[in-house]
Amino acid sequence: MFESLRALPPDPILALTPAFRADPNPDKIDLGAGVYKDEQGNTPVMRAVKRAEERVLAGQRSKAYVGPAGAPGFNDAIARLAFGDTLIGSLGERRVTLQTPGGCGGLRLAAEFLARANPDATVWLSDPTWPNHGPLLGAARLKIESYPYYDFDAHAVRFDAMLDCLSSAAAGDVVLLHGCCHNPCGGDLDPSQWRALRDLALARGFTVLIDMAYQGLGDGIEADVAGVRLLAESLPELLLVTSCSKNFGLYRERTGALSVICASSGVAKAAASQLAATARANWSMPPDHGAAVVQAIMEDADLRADWERELGEVRGRINGLRADLVAALRGAGLARDFSFIEREKGMFSFLGVTPDQAETLIRKYSIYLVKSGRINIAGINRTNINYLANSLAELFKESEH
Ligand code: LMR
Question: How far is the CA of 359 from the centre of ligand 1 (A)?
Fold first, then answer.
């Protein structure tokens, strides 16, 4: 029966990594998958993670099952990191949090949970969004629509168009927002825009699902969750997916969580049982190691301070690279205004190239980026920045002739 299956095209992001590795060009640059790289092009294990791993391994006495909701200590720590102690206190038993296999597991769990609550739900995704949002939410057979988000010419959030479009979303619909460091465009909402969205959600009654994969990589650990907290304190319902892939560098350990805020503690109790049953039907229980490491870091003042310091260094490096890239592009003689790159947040920005130009950058220059023109800023370093800027200058000049 398998003859009926056709081969699918490669994943638009993940396929870039093996292609980059196989490229013999010594000048090659990897600006593809959203993985942090240091000045030497390595993706290091964070200092606090290394130390916490030693403690976890030394202290572990059993490999017995943990349970579909994961480790309660991790769930508490990761929810506190996102919502803050005050909000955790005031939400009380209206909130449930489950450990998931990465942010993807959290999104998939959210999708199936939403489908259980309302099989007719429409999920609204930003245009553009991370290419895996559609498959993750669509896999639960939820209807997908998109709302305008980013103006590719003005390099700014199309907030009026977004609000206008979402005015047609209604109770039973779900609006997916990026908590911070929008993937792929790097354009985030400002505080007044978060407030306007909160007001619209209250007026229209739709449910908000926030994907937050980059807490701490934009303006700071606390600053990056200001919008999340604003919505969590004012809306009756909310879903929040958090990932530890980037801010703890735990990519392959698949560490994440789904938090669901319900209108009452009674509803939350029912939701918790549905979520646990959904997790049980998918992966039974999440992998333990990454969550145990995060919990160990969050519960130890010294490890936590070291983690915050290193995350600050990561953020500082990315923000510095944004400024360096704008300067290098100017230095390479490009007349185009790239200053938006400096205003945008997190790992990604669009370079403003067409899919054909992206293809040329890969084939001719060995500069790997997503076909949409999205680049991972963290892949830039002092050694490759001039090659990147000069290659882009050449590319743009060629296409202007
Ligand atoms: C990305 O957007 O590049 C990362 O989140 C990696 C992935 O899974 O797509």
Answer: 19
Average pLDDT estimate for 24-53: 97
pTM exceeds cut of 0.90: yes
Of the residues 173, 188, 211, 224, only one is catalytic, namely 211
What is the number of the ligand 1 atom nearest to the C-alpha of 132?
9
Three-class HEC string of the chain: CHHHCCCCCCCCCCCHHHHHHHCCCCCCEECCCCCCCCCCCCCCCCHHHHHHHHHHHHHCCCCCCCCCCCCHHHHHHHHHHHHCHHHHHHHHHHEEEEEEEHHHHHHHHHHHHHHHHCCCCEEEEEECCCCCHHHHHHCCCCEEEEEECEECCCCEECHHHHHHHHCCCCCCCEEEEECCCCCCCCCCCCHHHHHHHHHHHHHHCCEEEEEECCCCCCCCCCHHHHHHHHHHHHCCCEEEEEECCCCCCCHHHCEEEEEEECCCHHHHHHHHHHHHHHHHHHCCCCCCHHHHHHHHHHCCHHHHHHHHHHHHHHHHHHHHHHHHHHHHHHHCCCCCCCCHHHHCCCCEEECCCCHHHHHHHHHHHCEECCCCCEEEHHHCCCCCHHHHHHHHHHHHHHHHC
pLDDT, tens digit (0-9, with 9 covering 90-100), for 135-156: 999 999 999 999 999 999 999 9
